[in-house]
Amino acid sequence: MQALWMLLGSFFFSTMAVGVKVASASFNTFELVFYRGIVSVLFIALVLRARGTALKTPVPMMHLWRSVVGVLSLGAWFYAIAHLPLATAMTLNYMSGVWVAAFIVGGAMLYGRVQKQGPLSVTVLAGFAGVVMMLRPTVDQNQLFAGLIGLLSGLGAAMAYLQVTALGKAGEPEGRTVFYFSVGSTLCGLIGISLTGLSSWSSVSWQAIGWLIPIGILASLGQWCMTRAYSRGSTLLVANLQYSGILFGAFYSLLLIGDSIPLIGWAGMALIVASGLAATVLRTRILPDTPAEAH
After folding, report:
1. Is the model's pLDDT at 38 over the cut of 70?
2. Which residues of 183-210 are buried (b: 16+ CB within 10 A; e: fewer)?
3. Residue 35 structural domain
4. What pLDDT is recorded for position 294?
5. Alpha-carbon torsion (131, 150, 105, 226), positive or negative
6. What residues contact 263, with CB distance under 8 A and at least 6 apart?
7. For a pLDDT cut of 70, what percent of the chain falls above it?
8. Which of 14, 83, 223, 288 lies at 20 to 30 Å from 73 by C-alpha?
C-alpha cells in the first residue's frame, strides 16, 4: 500500500507542471527553480517544526548527492515544460521508471545475477521506442534540444529516486529528505539567477505570479509522497506507478493548455506505460531481491 503514495504524488507533480507551464511564460527556468525551492523550504520547515522533527542529519553527504542530482533533473524538467507540449515533457520525465529498470538490471549483472535478463532488457528498449514515438510528431528543429533536456531530466530523476530509496533505508524521515532537497533547489536557482538575472516584473502576468506559491506547495506535497513511496515501497513498483502522471499530464495538456497529441503520440505514451508495467511484472518474477533495494 505504501507504493500507492506515488499515485498521489504523481497528481501533485502533474498539477504543479501546469503551474510551471503558465509561469514559464514570465519567468526563466532558474527563477522557477528558486521560487519553487524557497516556498518549499518555508512550508516544509513549518511542517517539521509542528511534527517535532529535527533538521540535523547523520548522513549529510547522501542528502548532498540526492540534492545535486535531483536539482539538475528538476531544472531540466522545468526547461522541457517551458519548451515542449506539456504531455510530451511529462512523458519524458516519467521515462525515469524505465531508467530505474535499466539501473536495476545493470546492478543485477554486476552482482552476478545475469540469468533471464533478456525480457527486462526488451522492456527498456520498448520504453525508448515509446519516447521516439512521442517526440516524432511534435518536435521540430527548434524543439530537438528541449527534447534531449527532457530525456535527461528522466535519467536524473531515476538516479535521485534510487538515492531516496537509500535515504529511506538509512532511516531518514521523509520530511527531512524533502527539506534538504528544497534547500538545494533554492541554492541552485539563486546561483542561476545571479548569472541570468531576474525577469522584469512589469512584464510578468498576474497568472504567473499567482502560481508561484502553489508550485512550491504542490512540489513539497509531491516530493513528500514520492519520498514516502520510495522509502517504504518496492523501488521498481513505485517507479512504474508514477506513470499515472502521464495520464494526469495528458488530461491537463488537452483540457487546460490546449496542446494536441497525434495518434502516434498516444501510441508512444501507451507503449512507455506498458513497458514500465511489464518491467514490474518481470522484476517480481525474476529479481525478487535487487541491489537497488538492499542498501
Report:
1. yes
2. bbbbebbeebbeeeeeeeeeebeeebee
3. 2-293
4. 37
5. negative
6. none
7. 81
8. 288
Q: What is the structure's pLDDT at 264?
A: 83
What pLDDT is recorded for position 114?
53
Give the model's pLDDT for residue 246.
Answer: 72
Distance CA 188, CA 229 (A): 26
What pLDDT, in 10s, does the model give residues 197-231?
Answer: 898 888 899 999 999 999 999 999 999 998 888 88
Q: Which residues contact 137 (CB under 8 A, 6 or more apart)?
A: 262, 264, 265
Q: What is the value of pTM for the model shown?
A: 0.79
Q: Kindly tell me if the per-residue pLDDT of 32 is higher than 90.
A: yes
- Per-residue pLDDT at 286: 56
Lowest mean pLDDT among 20-24, 117-121, 259-263: 117-121
**How many domains does one find in the chain?**
1
Q: What SS3 string covers the chain?
A: CHHHHHHHHHHHHHHHHHHHHHHCCCCCHHHHHHHHHHHHHHHHHHHHHHHCCCCCCCCHHHHHHHHHHHHHHHHHHHHHHHHCCHHHHHHHHCCHHHHHHHHHHHHHHHCCCCCCCHHHHHHHHHHHHHHHHHHCCCCCCCCHHHHHHHHHHHHHHHHHHHHHHHHHHCCCCHHHHHHHHHHHHHHHHHHHHHHHCCCCHHHCCHHHHHHHHHHHHHHHHHHHHHHHHHHHCCHHHHHHHCCHHHHHHHHHHHHHHCCCCCHHHHHHHHHHHHHHHHHHHHHHHHCCCCHHHCC
Rounded to an integer, what distance in angstroms lies between the CA atom of residue 128 and that of residue 134?
Answer: 10
Residue 56: other Cβ atoms inside 10 A? 6
Cell of 126: 520498448
